[in-house]
Structures are given as C-alpha cells and as structure tokens.
Design brief:
Number of domains: 1
Structural class: mainly alpha
Distance between the termini: 56 Å
Number of helices: 13
Order of helices and strands: HHHHHHHHHHHHH
Strand content: under 5%
Bound molecules: 2-acetamido-2-deoxy-beta-D-glucopyranose
Largest sheet: none
Number of strands: 0
Keywords: Signal
Oligomer: single chain
Length: about 375
C-alpha cells in the first residue's frame, strides 16, 4: 500500500510538471521558492516515518512477550518436575543444587516477564501516542493550502478542516481508551509478577530450605500450582484482549494514515490544477468524504467495546461527543490484590512444608 502511494505521488508530480506551465494557475505563481516547497511536499510522503518505526518496535515487544509467556505452563511442569529426583538412586548434593537452581530460575522467569511486559507497555504507549501525533501532523499538512482562495472555496475548506479536526478528536479519544486499558492491564501483570518473584526470592534467601530431598520436592510441588494460578490470574483473558486490540488498532491506524495521506495529495492536487468545480468536488460534502474514516474508527470502537465490556457501551457514543467520563476500568488494578492471598505464602503451606524451613520470616 505504501509503495502504491509512492508511485501515485511520483506520477502526480510528473504530470504536474508537464501540465503546470500550460495551466497558468495564479494560486501557484511562478516557479518560485513557494512552488519548490509545494513540489517538495507533493513528492514527500506525509505519514511520519516515526509512525512506522514505533509501530514496528511495539510489534516486536508484543511478540517478545507472547513468546515468553506462550509455553509457561508446560515449562513450569518440565522445570519443576520432581519425578526425576525420585529416580536418582545415589542422590547427592549436586542434584540437590540443580533443583535449587530451578527454584531460582522460576523467580527469574517472573522477573523477566515483568520486565518484558513493562517494555511492551512502554513501546505500545509510544505507538499509541505517536499515532495520535501522526494524525495531527497530517492534519497540519492539509492546512498548508495557500490562504488566497476565493471566498466560497475558503468556506468549503474551513468546513473540510473542521470535519478533519473532529475526526482527529474522535480518533484520539478511542486511542486514549485503548491506551488506558493496555497500560492498566500490563501494569497489573507487572506488579503481580514482581511481587510473586520477590516472595520467592525472599524465601530462598532467608528461610533456609533444608536441602533434603523430600523438602525440595515438597516445595516444588507447592510452587507448581501456585505459580500456575498466579500466572493465570494475572494474565487471564485481559492480556489477550490487549494483544487483539493492539493488532486491530495497528490495522485501523495504518488504514487511516493512508487515507489521510490520500486526502492531502488530492487536496494539493486540486489546488494546483484549479478548476475547483471538477477536481474539488469532495470539498462540497466533507461529511461524506470522511464517512469512510469515521466508519473505520467506529469499527475499532465496537471491537474494543466487545472485547473489553461485552459491547455494553455502544458505538453510538461516536459523534455524540459527550464529555461524560467513560467508566473507569479498575479491574486491571484489582487483579494485583486478588492473585495472592494477603498472608501468602504461609497460609497456603502445609505443616510438613513449613517444617522444611529453618527460619520462617514474615515477608
Ligand atoms: C525453565 O527452564 C528454562 C531453562 O533453564 C528457563 O529458561 C525458563 O525460564 C524456565 N521456565 C520457568 C517457567 O521456570
Ligand atoms: C506528541 O506531540 C506532543 C505535542 O506536540 C509532544 O509533546 C509529544 O512529545 C509527542 N509524543 C510523541 C510520543 O512523539
Ligand atoms: C527432610 O526433612 C523433613 C523435615 O525436617 C523430615 O521430616 C524428613 O524426614 C527429611 N527427609 C529426609 C529424606 O531426610
């Protein structure tokens, strides 16, 4: 799509170089610095390069997180398997140490996952912010149309710009919603994982697990279901929603940027050639011209509502532009408290496991 856009721009610029001297269009003037600047902007690609860069970074961070979390439950079973211990006949200090190492690795995994979730939170935030900024920059491009136009055209342009600005506001509002949901969810995952890893570290460093085979086995058996529960509780379905909504926003925003770019080219084109009645028809019905764009953000809004609120908030909110606060989604933050009982881990440990530690300290 990008490539096609480029070809179109170049072709357009080429045609205009040939045609322009015959036109004698007074709005463009002679071959002046102003003309040069116009030619430059016609040829340029309007979508900021940054938009594609941050989108790629965010996409890579998303993949990192997905890859890291994908096989967690299987790895948990594999890493903390205790059947191997029982098969070791001349069980020794070395295999004990290996098992202890697995325990450290489990806490490392939760720390790493928290970090990677944090990286995705950062990169996706950048992406969402830059998306809003890029839409705004495209809008400013459109405003570069020379102001010396006939009154009627000026009025039409004013109307057209107003529609664009309205579109930009709506688009930004949806992006803000998605951004807030994403950040809340990722923050709660980060908090839960870090807190859980901290507890594991604290136990390994301070509780003095007896290095006897049945104690290590029992502690591993304890950690397996706990870790699986914490993992499920923290990620739940909300993380999938974050990924899905991110992918949908990527698609929509790319489409929107190209559509805005197309509108800039068309508008510039129309003012180069003059002859407004024919070439600038779209100016006469700005609302119609932006309908396709409003439809695509409405689709995004509906998708987001269905994913996050079971469609409770209808997309009719669009274009109504009320200032009423959108319901705060606080469930993201609640997860943090719900995933682990207050007096974890003692509350969950059997007496025999408690006896496996030499010095139990409150975390
Ligand atoms: C399992 O072990 C591998 C290799 O030691 C480690 O990279 C991974 O983080 C561990 N995963 C879990 C969930 O403990
Ligand atoms: C977006 O634009 C605002 C205002 O121009 C600026 O302050 C902010 O740093 C920009 N954000 C990004 C991520 O580029
Ligand atoms: C390991 O320690 C526990 C608790 O002190 C004890 O009950 C158990 O008999 C020990 N097992 C072995 C194999 O030493």
């Amino acid at each position: 799509m990008n490539l096609c856009g480029t070809n179109f721009t170049l072709t357009l610029a080429f045609i205009m170089i040939i045609v322009r001297p015959l036109e004698g269009n007074e709005h463009v003037g002679k071959l002046s610095p102003k003309f040069e600047r116009w030619m430059h902007s016609i040829r340029g690609e309007y979508i900021p390069l940054e938009f594609f860069n941050v989108m790629n970074s965010a996409d890579l961070s998303k993949q990192d997180l997905q890859n890291l979390l994908r096989n967690f439950l299987e790895n948990l079973q594999k890493n903390l398997t205790t059947s191997a211990i029982l098969n070791v006949i001349d069980y020794n200090h070395q295999s004990n140490r290996n098992q202890i190492r697995k325990l450290w690795e489990l806490s490392d995994f939760f720390y790493l996952s928290a970090d990677v979730a944090n990286a995705f939170a950062h990169d996706s935030q950048m992406y969402y912010e830059v998306t809003k900024n890029s839409s705004y920059k495209l809008l400013l491009h459109l405003r570069q149309i020379p102001s010396a136009q006939p009154t009627l055209v000026k009025m039409l342009l004013t109307n057209y710009f107003a529609e664009m600005e309205f579109f930009h506001i709506m688009f930004s509002e949806i992006i803000d919603e998605v951004l807030e949901y994403t950040q809340n969810t990722l923050l709660s995952i980060q908090n839960t994982f870090t807190y859980y890893a901290d507890i594991q570290r604290f136990i390994l460093e301070n509780w003095n697990l007896k290095s006897n085979i049945s104690c290590i086995k029992e502690y591993m058996e304890f950690l397996k279901p706990c870790s699986a529960k914490v993992f499920r509780c923290a990620t739940d379905t909300k993380l999938d929603v974050v990924f899905d909504v991110f992918a949908m926003t990527e698609l929509t925003s790319k489409y929107i940027m190209h559509q805005l770019e197309f509108r800039i080219q068309r508008l510039f084109n129309c003012f180069y050639f003059g002859n407004y009645e024919i070439r600038c028809k779209f100016l006469q019905n700005a609302e119609h011209d932006f309908e396709i764009l409003f439809n695509s953000i409405e689709d995004l809004e509906i998708y987001y509502d269905i994913k996050t609120k079971n469609g409770r908030v209808s997309a009719l909110r669009l274009r109504r532009h009320s200032n009423s606060n959108i319901e705060e989604d606080t469930t993201g933050l609640r997860v943090y408290n719900n995933c682990l009982p207050r007096d974890f881990p003692q509350s969950e440990m059997s007496n025999s496991l408690i006896n496996c530690f030499n010095t139990i300290q409150k975390y």
